[in-house]
Amino acid sequence: MDYCGDFIELLGPDISTKILMNLVNPSDLIRVSLVSSSWHQFVIENGLGKQLCLKLFPEISGIVHTIEMNNLIDTVGHKQNDCDELECLRKNHRIYTLLARAFNPFVRKDCISEAVIASSTDNYPEESIHNTLEPFDRIDTRASYWSSEGQNNPAVPETLLYKLMTKMCIVTEIHVQPFQAYFQYGFPIYSSKDVRFRMGHKLQSEMTDSSTSSNKSADDEFIWTYTSPEFPMVQENCLQKFKLPEPVLCIGGYMQVELLGRVQRQEMDGLYYICISHVQAVGRPLLPRFDIEMLDSSGRCALKYLPETGKRTLSSQPLTRETVHLLVFVRSLQDYYREAQEVGNKCY
Q1: Is residue 336 helix, strand or coil?
Q2: CA 161/CA 180 separation, integer angstroms
Q3: pLDDT tens string for the chain (348 positions)?
Q4: What is the pTM for the complete model shown?
Q5: CB neighbourhood size of 212 (10 A)
Q6: Residue 274's closest CA among 218, 240, 233?
Q7: Residue 198, SS3?
Q8: DSSP-assigned letters across all residues of 97-108
Q9: How far is CA 114 from CA 131, 239, 281, in A?
């Protein structure tokens, strides 16, 4: 386009920004920035990539400071150093346009991919942590649930460790359902008193994948970058939903459920147990063509785009209706501007 710069000059930065922010597809914004060097500079200097990312995923707004000031997320191949204002804007543009394309546009309730380990298990594998990911209350003819070992002290906590679908995931709420022992007298419900959630990443490269009892704390093998407040759990046989105060960007892909306090004693042996039927994590995982690489133990990571895992590249994706309308509008403005210039030149 010979007059691509005239569009912004004619309308001014404020109106131009409002027009461009009508785009809803991150790929369209990338296309716009490739029209010319002046458009590319305008998109970067006005933070349009960031604005679109926060428009699509407002859950990220709470961690903007961490992303930009603490360099929580970087892009592959970018060297970390002190940068001037323009270079920082360019780096943020790369990060936010990637994030805007990376997360699943739909909120999912199945963000957990694997049950890793429980702090204790009463009868393995019949009462394994893996049962908490089963969609139904029964497997064949037996009940599906996890059970802790019994304790005399009701204050003894338990933990359940899970691996999320992707190494980076926006988590908004977690669902936990206590187990009701329908085969025991009185149909007791073995809930905990409170529940708390941690999210983070592995510290060590290898970890034994076992659901058997272990006295080793997961804190020795994981770094928890987020810890939720404690939520009270009611002693009811229902899926209890715990909405986090703010959406959490889990980097590393691991979530720990802390079950604090025991409320139900088993009549048979007089010991306190905690039993859980279902655990769900609700949020937005990364799309398959994106992944992260952990950079250090603080939780910093590099966001990677893997086009070979996706079905289509940017160039093969069709223009959206919004982009077509924008291009038609811009072309009309350019024609109008050019005609106005020609009329003005004739007058002189």
Answers
A1: helix
A2: 22
A3: 444 445 677 778 888 888 888 888 888 888 888 877 888 889 999 999 999 999 999 888 877 877 777 677 877 655 555 567 888 888 889 889 889 999 999 999 999 999 999 999 999 999 999 999 998 888 888 899 999 999 999 999 999 999 999 999 999 999 999 999 999 999 999 999 999 999 999 985 544 444 444 445 666 789 999 999 999 999 999 999 999 999 999 999 999 999 999 999 999 999 999 999 999 999 999 999 899 988 888 788 888 888 765 444 444 455 566 556 666 656 665 565 566 566 555 555
A4: 0.80
A5: 12
A6: 233
A7: strand
A8: HHHHHHB-SS-B
A9: 11, 19, 11
Residue listed under structure tokens 């403005």: 333
Residue type, 34: L
CA dist 218 to 71, 151, 214, Å? 26, 20, 9
Q: Which amino acid is at 129?
A: I
Please give the Cα distance from 183 to 178 (Å, whole number): 15
* Domains, the chain: 4-103+290-347 (no CATH), 112-285 (2.60.120.260)
Query: Which two structure tokens, joined as six digits, stand for 265?
Result: 């004693």
Tell me the two tokens of residue 91: 């780096």
Q: Is the peptide bond before 125 cis (omega within 30 degrees of 0)?
A: yes
User: Cα dihedral sign for 125, 126, 127, 133?
Assistant: positive
